[in-house]
Amino acid sequence: MNINTFRAFKSRNYRLYFIGQSVSLIGTWMQKTAVSWVIYTLTHSTFMLGVTLFASQFPSFLFSLIGGVVSDRYNRYRVLLTTQVASMLQAGLLAILILLKQYEVWEILSLSVMLGIINAFDVPARQSLVYEMIEDKNDLPNALALNSSMVNLSRLIGPAIAGLILEAWGDGACFVGNTISFIAVIGSLLMMRLPKYINKPHPKNVFGELREGLSYIKRTPSILFVLVMLALISLLVLPFSTLIPYYARDVFKGTATTFGIIDSFIGLGAFSGAIFLASQKPGANLKKILFISTLVFGAGLVLFSHQQSYPLALLFVTIAGFGMMSQITVSNTLIQTTVAQNMRGRVISFYAMAFFGMQPLGGLLVGAISKWVGTTDTLMGEGIAALLIGLLHWRYLRREKLKALRKKQMVEPVVVAAV
Prior knowledge:
82% of the residues lie in helices and 0% in strands. The protein is an all-alpha fold.
């Protein structure tokens, strides 16, 4: 860490957001861990873990574009406040269901679908509002990296707490804890002092604005490539997390605590990756970091996939977590620092579509393949896919470098001739 690591905290609104969201995210990861454990305990099926991921994230794929338009057309602050209250209600309903001990898998999946719809509107509004929270816009990359550190510190703490609570008090306590945690983020939003919202006219309808956003992405190759890369990673690699309960229970013969520990080590690696990015000086070569991070992610998964030693497995999954979060955070930063302000919500909705939309499809794919070739070989295949995607990025960077070199060679003779 250095003096650059926390420079975004100079903005009061961002400090409030960071504190409130940190508490809420710990609860969110407690709930995610508990849901995975409950589903796997009920079904003993890695395929059903993929179905659970599909149920919670595919609705975000379906509705995220509309969520992006809503973020650009209406007051993002009010949209975010509404989605946080709705998320609290969803968590409360899930807690009541689990505490009554009369639940079935389809009921948990239905509430997961509800959360996916809420997130479709939450993510574009939340990501776009971060820009407005930052007083010095040069601090935006730092704020986005700190966001990732927040997410992954909660991923480090949340599953570990969930594992202990699952064994000590049962699954219902995890869901109650998540419900209560939303008080922090809602309170922080109410304490913010943002500029007065000015309603702007929108002559185009929703579909017209969607087409406008898509045309903008097509005209901006740097954003388009990052979105394609992220979509491939989300489809083929990120669903590795759905297989972790299998490793905890069947490979390492563990309990809910083992599952929580493995998930926490993924979070430790991811948190380290986010802090690494937050410590980068302004002007760092993010495209190169994105390439290297993708390779680190893939290598970590390949090394973890067939590992029988628990300590070594924790080391390799930490490396994978580092590469994973660096890859995701840099993708987000490249988009946020490139996109035009009036297109921010819509472009972020495409980002959410690539990130959240492809994962549930990948979860179903990974679940099905694991039934066919086995879980360990499936996870190794995901690591190899990440390495191949990294090589694709290397090819793109090389082509961009050659283009820039040719352009420079074409300009220089003209300058000489003019002299």
